[in-house]
Amino acid sequence: MSGKKIEEKVRYMEFKQYRVDKDLIVIGAGMPGICAAIQAARLGLSVALINNRGYLGGNASAEIGVSIDGADGMQEFNLWARETGIIDELRLENLYRNPQKNRYIWDAVLMDAVLSEENIELFLNTNIDKVEMKADGLIEYVSGSQLGSEKRFNFYGPLFLDDTGDGTVGYLAGADYRMGRESRHEFGESAAPEEADDCVLPSTLTFHAKDTGRPVRYIRPGFALDIAKTGALRYRTIPKETFYRSQWYYEGSGRINQIENSEEIIRKHRELVYGIWDYIKNSGEYDAANYDFEYIAPVPGKRESRRLMGDHILSEKDITEQKDFEDTVGHGGWSIDLHAVDGFFSRDLVNKHIYLKGIYQIPYRTGYSRNISNLFFAGRCMSTTHVAFGSTRVMATLSTLGQALGAAAYLCKKYSLMPRDLYRSRIEELRQLLLRHDQYIVGCRNEDPDDLARSAVITASSESRLSLAEADFEQPLDKPLGLIIPVDGHLESVSIMVRAASDVTLEFTVYEPVKRENYNPERVIVKSSVEIYASAGFTWVQLPMNVDVDRNKVFIEIASRPGVYIGMTRDKLPGVISMVKTPNGSPTLVDAATMKMKEYIWRPVEGTACFKADPDNGIYGPAKVINGYSRPYGLPNLWLSDKTDPDNCGECMTLSWHVDKTINEMILYFDDDLNYRISYWPVENNVIPELVRDYDVLYKIGDEYRLLESVRGNYKRVNNINADSIKTNELKLVIHATNGSPRVGVYEIRVY
Ligand SMILES: Cc1cc2nc3c(=O)[nH]c(=O)nc-3n(C[C@H](O)[C@H](O)[C@H](O)COP(=O)(O)OP(=O)(O)OC[C@H]3O[C@@H](n4cnc5c(N)ncnc54)[C@H](O)[C@@H]3O)c2cc1C
Q1: Other C-beta atoms within 10 Å of 280: how many?
Q2: DSSP-derived secondary structure letter, 648
Q3: Distance between CA 656 and CA 658 in Å, rounded?
Q4: Does the beta carbon of 248 lie inside 6 Å of ligand 1?
Q5: I want to staple 697 with a disulfide (CB 3.0 to 4.6 A). Which of 16, 614, 708, 744 is the partner?
């Protein structure tokens, strides 16, 4: 480093100063910061959202272009785990407007979302570089100058939220923080190194190239690496199919301080990227003659630096043992994904995905400072160990904490509390508030006394049976087949559709998960076999069970049997899925229980095994819309109509009361297939087919129904219908069309 640190006080001139006063100051507009700001603004707080770059979204911005992942990725059994709430709203909006996944349209989606909140004032290109403290140890204001305008802003507020990634505000305020890896024994983490050290997950410089339609020459710049000579290609690959874009593992070193040596890291990344591109263009191994760089990010995507310390530090066991917390406000589920510290030049495995049993819970106490009383933090500087961070760091997961903190800030203001006091006195109120705003809180049900729907009598035009009985194709039973189905109480038997070339014995094992939110085969409750006889076509074979199921679902494993074929359907039901057990050939996939390479992986298959469950127990009945859960937890928890014409559903649902109620708002939480992974890549469909598209809401006056709201072309999961204090004893939801699904699904209805 050539600069000399200036110790003595110097006289200097400053930009003109401006004072901004808000209820909540959010520094950093990564995805968690955006979700926090939107949530707080919707609850009526005035919010300053400050970002030192010109694009919103942090690593997910148009500038850096990282995909948003979450609890539904890189696992076997985190089914129906996609985050809901504001992050889902943003992703559904992007899917709708931008199925081609253009990064600049995505930026416009984020801009619209922020600018449409009138309580948010946005400060782009404003770098916070100063924190002023009060005598009582609280942050008084944060200060930053704005690129281009020669202005300096001082942001005052009672509450601050650090989403800078680097935890810059926390650091300047003197908040406790860590950087590097904990030792194995400190938190009993088997994935941690024996001794603590300063290493972190390295960063990556993203790039993209495009086919220009004519040959383009590339001359390696003098600063770039000659990749072939580095020896890296003995341990790392530059893929042939996707050479035109950066791979996450084109990483620098995690041994360098990612903040202090930021410029050195950028320079080394440039050497790497321009060197890799030289290899792609000039080695003759790639079909890249017509390709040219389209963009190279101006800054690397940073994976890890400071982690600020809260009242709880989330650690490996919290995640692998799926601990229940009284202050759970979010969830995660991505594997513990730890990268090789030496990045592209490492001789180690590129990374390890430590697979979990299912999703885990994120406590509120990971989101505020343990020693700076008015400081919240979200994003990668939240309070975790390095190992736990390997999982929490994906952006949809981080955003759940962001949204929770936005709501927490609202309650802090309402009751004049500091973040820790809120944990001690009003945590249940926070959780209930978050549920209303569509956050998933594992196991927490709607107990809102103001919700009139909870006391309504619910009826519906039809309901789906727990059965898929029409086969479209067959699947050879050459690998063990798993069938997960929901069960409410007792299960007498499940029948499956089978064709066998000869008489054989079919062995099956029935498991239930240990936790209601899980889908994994954990506890054996039945082990049995049935005889089946040779047949030319499919026959129904009954698998007798006669069990009481405590955890609301079973995982039926049917042992492989060559010569046997299972009838499969392309139809699907929420909570029902078929999987096959396949040997795992990848050393990067590791079992959390043993920390060894997984022997087998259960993978979802195309279609679902046809089945009939006895008894059905009204799994998809209309009353599910008021059972308190707005997504799968144990049961699927939704009303699902019988099969119908997607463009002409003719389905309806009524909510009625014995006496008139005064109604101001109705909230509908539609099925948006939480098992659908919203991809970063271009897709055909721009709306999730399960979502209700066209519907009317009516209310009854005497014998007559009047129209309250008519919605056409819906593509959102949560629909808020406002009413002007209407008095009625019956609301009617009439569904005319879905976005393609043959069934109408509604998770929850609330009425206020
Ligand atoms: C290459 C790469 C690939 C990844 N792949 C994935 C993936 O596939 N899926 C996934 O979900 N996650 C992925 N991650 C992880 C994820 O991107 C990060 O964990 C996440 O972005 C952290 O969010 P954040 O908001 O804390 O930080 P950031 O996303 O970095 O956002 C911080 C924001 O704060 C602003 N800021 C910083 N300092 C200041 C300041 N002083 N004043 C004002 N503003 C400031 C920044 O401009 C930025 O907008 C990846 C990360 C990297 C680096």
Answers
A1: 20
A2: B
A3: 7
A4: yes
A5: 708
Contact assessment for residue 62 and residue 107, using Cβ atoms and an 8 Å cutoff: yes
DSSP H or E stretch at residue 355: strand 351-355
333 lines ligand 1 (CB under 6 A): no
Residue type, 108: A
Q: Is residue 273 within 8 Å of residue 359, measured between CB atoms?
A: no
347 phi and psi, to 5 degrees? -95, 0
Tell me: the pLDDT tens digits for 498-557? 999 999 999 999 999 999 999 999 999 999 999 999 999 999 999 999 999 999 999 999
Question: Ligand 1 pocket, 498 CB below 6 A?
Answer: no
**CA of residue 439 to ligand 1 center, whole Å:** 21
As a whole number of Å, the end-to-end CA separation of the chain is 61
One fold for both 16-180+359-436 and 452-462+620-751? no
**Cβ(403)–Cβ(39) below 8 Å:** yes
- pLDDT at 668 > cutoff 60: yes
Token couple for 566 = 């299972």
For the whole model, what pTM was predicted? 0.97
CATH 1.10.10.10 at 16-180+359-436, yes or no: no
pLDDT tier at 4, thresholds 50, 70, 90: confident
Ligand 1 binding pocket includes 63 (Cβ within 6 Å): no
The pLDDT assigned to 74 comes to 86
Q: What is the pLDDT of residues 80-132, one digit of tens each?
A: 999 999 999 999 999 999 999 999 999 999 999 999 999 999 999 999 999 99
Nearest CA to ligand 1 atom 27: 165
Q: State if residue 37 touches ligand 1 by the CB under 6 angstroms criterion.
A: no
Whose Cα sits closest to atom 7 in ligand 1? Answer: 67
Query: Ligand 1 centre and the CA of 412: distance in Å?
Result: 27
Taking a C-beta distance cutoff of 8 angstroms, is the pair 15, 153 a contact? no
Half-sphere exposure of 475 (CA within 13 A, CB side): 26
- Best mutation site among 50, 63, 66 for ligand 1 pocket (most ligand atoms within 8 Å of CB): 66
Q: Ligand 1 centre from 333 Cα, in Å?
A: 19
- pLDDT, position 733: 98
Atom number, ligand 1, closest to the C-alpha of residue 379? 26
The CATH number of 467-614, from 2.60.40, 1.10.10, 2.60.120, 3.90.550, is: 2.60.120
The answer to whether the CB of 380 is under 6 A from ligand 1 is yes
Q: Which two tokens mark 400?
A: 């759940």
Closest CA to 186 of 317, 321, 361: 317
Cβ of 30 closer than 6 Å to ligand 1, yes or no, is: yes
Amino acid in the structure at residue 59: N
Pick the atom of ligand 1 nearest to 402's CA.
25
Query: In which element (H, E) is residue 96 found?
Result: helix 86-97
The answer to whether 217 and 175 are in contact (CB under 8 A) is: no
Residue 737 zone, left/alpha/beta (φ > 0; ψ -120 to 50; rest): beta
Q: Is the pLDDT of residue 10 over 70?
A: no
* Under 8 Å between Cβ of 227 and 285: no
- Contact between residue 68 and residue 31 where contact means Cβ atoms under 8 Å apart: yes
**Interatomic CA distance for residues 353 and 592, integer angstroms:** 9
Cβ of 203 below 6 Å from ligand 1: yes
* pLDDT score recorded for residue 680: 80
Structure tokens at 386: 């390095």
- For the chain, the domains span 16-180+359-436, 207-296, 452-462+620-751, 467-614
| Interval between CA 296 and ligand 1 midpoint (Å) | 17
